[in-house]
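re: that chain from earlier
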Amino acid sequence: RYGKTGKAYGFNGMNSRIRINDLALNGKNTFSLSMWLKTLPGSAHFISGANTVRTNEFLLTFHSLSRLQFLTKDPSGNATIFTTTSTNTSSWFGNWVHLTMTRVNSSSGMEVFVDGRFAELFGMASGAPQIDSNGLWLGGDQDSVGGGWQAGQFFEGSIDEVRIYDRALSASEVANLYELERPGAFNGPDL
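^ sequence. v structure.
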C-alpha cells in the first residue's frame, strides 16, 4: 500500500479470497473490525461469516447504490439487512479508504468510521455472530460454510491492515489508528 509493492492483499473479483480464523468473530458480542480498502467499481462482498445452519450469518458488501450493506442474522436465523444512508462509497473506487466498524454490546448497532472519523450508526441483529470453523472469509460471499462461491460475489481490489479486536474501539482510538497508518505517516523502516 502507498507504493510498498506486495504489501496489500490483491483480490481479482473472480475467485480470490482469504480464510480468517472464525474465533476472531464467533460468539463475540463486542468487537471492532478495521481495514484499508481500495475497491474497483463492481466489487461485491468483502467479508462473509457463516455456520452450517445459516449462510450469511455476517456479510459486509458494497450495495449497488454506492452504499455499504450489512446483513446479519439473529439467534433465530431471521435476516436483517442494513444499508448505510449517509456513507456514499462512490468516491472510494480506486482510492485507499480506512474503514472501521465497532460494536459495543449484543444489542447495539455498528458504528461506522471512514478515514478515522465517525460516519454513521447502522443496525445489527441482536446476539453475537455464530461462525463455524472455516466459516469466516475475506474477499467473497460463501453460500455454505467455506464454499458455494459464485461469480459476481467477490471483491475486486486490495485490502490491507486487517485488524479484528475483541472490544469496541473508542472514537479516539479509531482516529489514532487512522493517523498511524494513513499515507505520509511514519511507520518506521521496512524490515
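The first strand starts at residue 9 and ends at 12.
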